[in-house]
């Protein structure tokens, strides 16, 4: 097993996840089996109870793990399926060690950060690195991992300082991602932050083998030589990644700077110097992305719109689908509270601007979320999509609100609501699932990959999924459509075309006589891949561009 540790310096959010994913993509294109581990220093057991404004979206894995969004990048780039233990947190490690201490495993010894916590980190990494993540179920050959260098991450840094000797030099490589800022006052690219960052890392006992420099613009050769000289590495060990038009371009930039040849020599890898067809496909995809001329605009109506990372997987799923049909995605984020009447009273300009954005979009998407704030605005957007025949996709809460909107405006149940927002509603069209609501918040929802069975052949989504009898997608919810009331909706044209294996939980809705009005209880965005777009999102883009009917007539084959 070869281990590649990716550390970050100067600032957080510098792109460790994308760079680690891109390196994994390159190594996978060389025929190697790659897995990935993300290390987060927070004391939370997992990311499940975070506000999206804390760390971005919560990514859900097949096994129900609620993890950092970087694992989503790993899955999308490497086309693998990870597990919750691929996300290590300080909370998990300490819980593991404390449980062992309570069990008496340490035989009366004083339990300390060194060696007990650091040993637990190393043991966890070595065990999880062996778990197969590809469809062929073979043990990985390369394990990519990421940690950081701030004070709460120190036990992890110390663990890897020890681990580099345990794994041996030919099996361990450290990549340090740093920032080369360019102040507007001088326009000169500054190397001092990188020098200080590398010096601090060396002081902790880790010497970077590769220094990846992030910058706004391409870095000049003189800067590369300066970093090489002051950071004690060869010039070819300094890699530049400037801001690019799309993340698809990052693996290509790395490959162009000789990273395959370096890894072959440094880790003694049994690979050719040239990548296989996989990286050629990435090159073609990146070039195609940059040449797109036709634009499709989608309005995302949500409550966490101030930070794009809150909907990272949704954005990627839309982007994958747009690229598949040769359109450039124009995604507009609309804060759902700005569509509400209260905003019209308080700030009419903001209200009308939000509605203007919604009205000019080609399609409307209402993603998942929790809590009552902004729900009335989402209901207004759904009503607009339904009545004006705008292509619409509702995901998780988006589907539940589509049911509430239909009940209020088509069934004339004016007090229809979800028990999440009004526990005492007289018409509960969306109800909680008692077995998934035991009192604790963390890890108690209906999580992970579940099967959804189509109950009719007359379904747009079934055709988009290749006319399969069932699909398996990832879930993350605590509430469901009330199954006792579904017949009332179906009589009026809102069809529940998919349900769980027992037939009790409603999973997919479709509205008759509408170009594309679809709601799904699951989160299809978590399974979307750059070369395998998610069918519900693909359907939204096809309908928004007016090409859905032609696509279905071709037997769900994309035009060349």
TrEMBL record:
<comment type="similarity">
    <text>Belongs to the CTP synthase family.</text>
</comment>
<feature type="region of interest" description="Disordered">
    <location>
        <begin position="424"/>
        <end position="444"/>
    </location>
</feature>
<dbReference type="InterPro" id="IPR033828">
    <property type="entry name" value="GATase1_CTP_Synthase"/>
</dbReference>
<dbReference type="GO" id="GO:0097268">
    <property type="term" value="C:cytoophidium"/>
</dbReference>
<feature type="domain" description="CTP synthase N-terminal">
    <location>
        <begin position="2"/>
        <end position="269"/>
    </location>
</feature>
<dbReference type="GO" id="GO:0019856">
    <property type="term" value="P:pyrimidine nucleobase biosynthetic process"/>
</dbReference>
<dbReference type="GO" id="GO:0003883">
    <property type="term" value="F:CTP synthase activity"/>
</dbReference>
<dbReference type="InterPro" id="IPR017926">
    <property type="entry name" value="GATASE"/>
</dbReference>
<feature type="domain" description="Glutamine amidotransferase">
    <location>
        <begin position="307"/>
        <end position="536"/>
    </location>
</feature>
<dbReference type="InterPro" id="IPR027417">
    <property type="entry name" value="P-loop_NTPase"/>
</dbReference>
<dbReference type="GO" id="GO:0044210">
    <property type="term" value="P:'de novo' CTP biosynthetic process"/>
</dbReference>
<keyword id="KW-0315">Glutamine amidotransferase</keyword>
<comment type="pathway">
    <text>Pyrimidine metabolism; CTP biosynthesis via de novo pathway; CTP from UDP: step 2/2.</text>
</comment>
<comment type="function">
    <text>Catalyzes the ATP-dependent amination of UTP to CTP with either L-glutamine or ammonia as the source of nitrogen. Constitutes the rate-limiting enzyme in the synthesis of cytosine nucleotides.</text>
</comment>
<dbReference type="Pfam" id="PF00117">
    <property type="entry name" value="GATase"/>
</dbReference>
<dbReference type="InterPro" id="IPR029062">
    <property type="entry name" value="Class_I_gatase-like"/>
</dbReference>
<keyword id="KW-0547">Nucleotide-binding</keyword>
<dbReference type="GO" id="GO:0005737">
    <property type="term" value="C:cytoplasm"/>
</dbReference>
<dbReference type="GO" id="GO:0005524">
    <property type="term" value="F:ATP binding"/>
</dbReference>
<keyword id="KW-0665">Pyrimidine biosynthesis</keyword>
<dbReference type="GO" id="GO:0042802">
    <property type="term" value="F:identical protein binding"/>
</dbReference>
<dbReference type="InterPro" id="IPR004468">
    <property type="entry name" value="CTP_synthase"/>
</dbReference>
<keyword id="KW-0067">ATP-binding</keyword>
<protein>
    <recommendedName>
        <fullName>CTP synthase</fullName>
        <ecNumber>6.3.4.2</ecNumber>
    </recommendedName>
</protein>
<dbReference type="Pfam" id="PF06418">
    <property type="entry name" value="CTP_synth_N"/>
</dbReference>
<keyword id="KW-0436">Ligase</keyword>
<dbReference type="InterPro" id="IPR017456">
    <property type="entry name" value="CTP_synthase_N"/>
</dbReference>
């Amino acid at each position: 097993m070869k281990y590649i540790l990716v550390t970050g310096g100067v600032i957080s959010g510098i792109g460790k996840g994308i760079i680690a994913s891109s390196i994994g993509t390159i190594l996978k294109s060389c025929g190697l089996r790659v897995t990935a581990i993300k290390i987060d220093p927070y004391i939370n057991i997992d990311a499940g109870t975070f506000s999206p404004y804390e760390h971005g979206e919560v990514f859900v894995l097949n096994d129900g793990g609620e993890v950092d969004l970087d694992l989503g990048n790993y899955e999308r780039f490497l086309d693998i399926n990870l597990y919750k233990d691929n996300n290590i947190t300080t909370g998990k490690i300490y819980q593991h060690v404390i449980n062992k201490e309570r069990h008496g495993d340490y035989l009366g010894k004083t339990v300390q950060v060194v060696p007990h916590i650091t040993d637990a980190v190393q043991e966890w990494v070595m065990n999880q690195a062996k778990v197969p993540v590809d469809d062929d179920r073979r043990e990985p050959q390369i394990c990519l991992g990421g940690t950081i260098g701030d004070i709460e991450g120190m036990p992890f840094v110390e663990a890897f300082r020890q681990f580099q000797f345990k794994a041996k030099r030919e099996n361990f490589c450290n990549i340090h991602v740093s920032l080369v800022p360019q102040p507007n006052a001088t326009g000169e690219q500054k190397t001092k932050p990188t020098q200080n960052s590398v010096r601090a890392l060396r002081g902790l006992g880790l010497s970077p083998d590769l220094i990846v420099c992030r910058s706004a613009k391409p870095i000049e050769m003189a800067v590369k030589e300066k970093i090489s000289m002051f950071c004690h590495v060869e010039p070819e060990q300094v890699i530049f990644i400037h801001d690019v038009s799309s993340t698809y371009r990052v693996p290509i930039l790395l490959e162009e700077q000789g990273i395959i040849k370096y890894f072959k020599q440094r880790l003694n890898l049994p690979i050719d110097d040239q990548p296989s067809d996989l990286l050629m496909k990435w090159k073609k995809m990146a070039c195609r992305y940059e040449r797109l001329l036709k634009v499709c605009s989608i309005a995302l109506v949500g409550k966490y719109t101030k930070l794009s990372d809150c909907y990272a997987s949704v954005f990627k799923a839309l982007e994958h689908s747009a690229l598949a049909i040769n359109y450039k995605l124009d995604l507009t984020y609309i804060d759902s509270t700005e569509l509400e009447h209260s905003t019209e009273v308080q700030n009419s300009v903001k209200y009308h601007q939000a509605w203007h954005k919604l009205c000019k979009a080609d399609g409307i998407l209402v993603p998942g979320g929790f809590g009552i704030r902004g729900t009335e605005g989402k209901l207004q957007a759904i009503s607009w999509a339904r009545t004006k025949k705008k292509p619409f996709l509702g995901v998780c809460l988006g589907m539940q609100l589509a049911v509430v909107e239909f009940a209020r405006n088509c069934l004339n149940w004016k007090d229809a609501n979800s028990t999440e927002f009004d526990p005492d509603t007289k018409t509960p069209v969306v109800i909680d699932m008692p077995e998934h609501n035991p009192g604790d918040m963390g890890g108690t929802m209906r999580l992970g990959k579940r099967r959804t069975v189509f109950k009719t052949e007359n379904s747009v989504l079934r055709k988009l999924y290749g006319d399969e009898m069932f699909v398996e997608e990832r879930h993350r919810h605590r509430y469901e459509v009330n199954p006792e009331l579904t017949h009332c909706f179906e009589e009026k044209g809102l069809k529940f075309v998919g349900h769980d294996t027992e037939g009790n939980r409603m999973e997919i809705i479709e509205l008759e006589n509408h170009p594309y009005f679809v709601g799904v209880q699951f989160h299809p965005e978590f399974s979307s891949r750059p070369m395998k777009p998610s069918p519900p999102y693909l359907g939204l883009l096809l309908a928004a561009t007016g090409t859905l009917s032609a696509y279905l007539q071709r037997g769900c084959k994309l035009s060349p």
